[in-house]
Structures are given as C-alpha cells and as structure tokens.
Design a protein that fits this description.
Length: 144
C-alpha cells in the first residue's frame, strides 16, 4: 500500500484505531512516519494533545475515554532486558504501539499486526502482516 502524504499516514493510523487491546509493531527507518501513524491512531480515539515519539522515556501513556494506549519507542533501549525491568507485560491489557520492536528482541511482546514502512520516492510504502485474528481484522479493514 502506498501512502502519499503525512496526512494520509495519519488517516491510515486512524483506521487502525478499531483495536481495543493488542500490540502493533511499527518498523521502518528514521523518518518513515511511524510516529505520524501513531498520531492518527490517537486522534481517532479522541486525543487532542501533542503526540511525540517517546525516544528518551521509552513509553508514553495515553489514558483516553474508552482506551489506554501505550506508545513505545525502543530506539534508545540500551539492552533488550530493560523491557523486563520496565514491566512491559503489565502494559499488555491495553493497546501497545511499539516503534523499533526489533531492538527489544525476545523481550518485545509478540504483535497482533506488524507494519513495515519504507521510503518510496516521495511517499511511503506499507506492508502489513497479521499474526492473530485481531491482526487479520485490522489488515482486512485497511486493505479494503
């Protein structure tokens, strides 16, 4: 799927906001639009404030009316085992959007859906892979 603009990336993120609980892995190089996708997701759930990548804090919680969303950015994670010390399993009863999940290795929770984002000329190319029934539903919603 080709995403031509950052506003289209936000719209795509908003389409994923049907999730009530689960894990989404967001993979891609710097500047591909992972945080922009998260912004669209959060705005679709009613978040009005700023959405920035939690590069230094590792996780940013968003307590919304109907959902809690945890936005992780593992880019600066020093050691994958730090996720265990953060108590990452305690976050799994909500929605977890995880940027750079590969850095957390086996400590990163398994995804319902994985989204790879690539630079593609002046646009972005997205590839989605579902790992669970929830992930398949999200893929179906966004591909139709």
């Amino acid at each position: 799927m080709i995403i031509p603009t950052s506003s289209a990336m936000e719209e795509f993120g908003g389409n994923l906001a049907h999730l009530e609980q689960g894990v989404i892995h967001l993979c891609g190089d710097l500047g591909t639009g992972k945080t922009t996708l998260v912004r669209g997701f959060l705005r679709a759930l009613g978040h009005q404030g700023i959405v920035k990548s939690p590069t230094y804090t590792i996780v940013e919680p968003y307590h919304l009316d109907k959902n809690t969303v945890y936005h992780f950015d593992l880019y600066r994670l020093g050691d994958p085992e730090e996720l265990e010390y953060l108590g990452i399993r305690d976050y799994l009863d909500a929605i977890c959007l995880i940027e750079w999940p590969e850095i957390g290795k086996d400590f990163t929770p398994k995804p319902d859906i994985k989204i790879n984002i690539y630079h593609h000329k002046t646009a972005r190319l997205l590839e989605m892979q579902a790992y669970t029934k929830i992930g398949k539903i999200l893929c179906d919603i966004n591909l139709n």
